[in-house]
């Protein structure tokens, strides 16, 4: 496979967290997209579920960047991300869906790692590849604040599409995935990275690599988790990104490497959160 979306998305996915007064923290997942301005200026956008930011009351959060040393070893390097200016949110929210986006000034390694916007699924993507129930997709996130290792890389999960039909997104804005979802997963990318899928009506194979959407909810009924995730289509990520172009004088938020919250050392990424608010509960869509 010439290009591996799973590895690239792992590099582009970050933990978002905000300490809570009782010593616990609110945790969510976000990922970076490269989306130039209408004038062609490079721009790095952080995408997550809107409720992740909404459940963070303070003006700043931490974004879990990672740094690779000269010896090749990665280390967790969370930095401060301003998400509010007083009572004014610095992110834009989709008017009807649980999607948020904000422009960030990321370290050079993460600017390079940001996923090009053209890898977000379009309205016809599911039909073009003849995708449906039973097809496997993957998701990245930080369940209960856990990471894959002390360097802060996200945990990769896999599950099968559990609903039908999947398109059009205007009629079916979300779809179901059969896999366990935990607080901390919200906002993580859901994607397909298949190297040899048969073309519809042909014996030829093709690479199928695209971001299908982001995880926004888990299904819970009468207090019981059903181990089903709800994915919001990438169409609504695209629409949220378009809202950034309508802002008067786009403001870049500062999230530079090496600037952590004074007096609040970063909690090790492999430590489970005591309190979490990263996945909304829902009995239905």
From TrEMBL:
Stored Pfam families: Trypsin_2
InterPro entries: Peptidase_S1_PA
PANTHER family xrefs: OS07G0666400 PROTEIN (PTHR43019:SF64), SERINE ENDOPROTEASE DEGS (PTHR43019)
Protein name: Peptidase S1
């Amino acid at each position: 496979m010439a290009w591996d979306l799973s590895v690239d998305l792992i590099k582009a996915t970050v933990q978002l967290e905000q300490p809570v007064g009782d010593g616990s923290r609110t945790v969510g997942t976000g990922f970076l997209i490269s989306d130039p301005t209408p004038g062609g200026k490079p721009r790095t956008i952080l995408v997550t579920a809107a409720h992740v930011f909404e459940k963070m009351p303070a003006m700043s959060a931490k974004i879990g960047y990672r740094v690779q040393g000269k010896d090749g070893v990665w280390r967790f390097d969370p930095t401060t991300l301003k998400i509010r200016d007083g009572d004014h949110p610095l992110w834009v929210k989709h008017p009807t869906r649980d999607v948020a986006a904000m422009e960030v000034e990321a370290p050079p390694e993460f600017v390079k790692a940001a996923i090009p916007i053209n890898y977000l699924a379009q309205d016809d993507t599911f039909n073009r590849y003849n995708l449906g129930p039973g097809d496997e997709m993957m998701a990245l996130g930080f369940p209960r604040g856990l990471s894959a290792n002390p360097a802060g890389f996200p945990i990769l999960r896999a599950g099968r599409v559990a609903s039908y039909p999947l398109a059009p997104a205007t009629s079916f804005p979300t779809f179901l995935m059969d896999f366990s979802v935990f607080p901390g997963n919200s906002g993580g990318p859901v994607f397909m990275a298949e190297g040899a899928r048969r073309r519809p009506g042909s014996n030829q194979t093709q690479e199928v690599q695209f971001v299908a959407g982001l995880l926004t909810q888990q299904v819970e009924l009468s207090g019981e988790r059903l181990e089903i995730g709800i994915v919001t289509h990438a169409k609504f990520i695209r629409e949220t990104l378009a809202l950034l172009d309508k802002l008067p004088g786009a403001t870049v938020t500062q999230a530079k490497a090496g600037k952590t919250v004074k007096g609040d050392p970063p909690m090790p990424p492999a430590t489970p959160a005591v309190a979490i608010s990263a996945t909304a509960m829902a009995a239905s869509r």
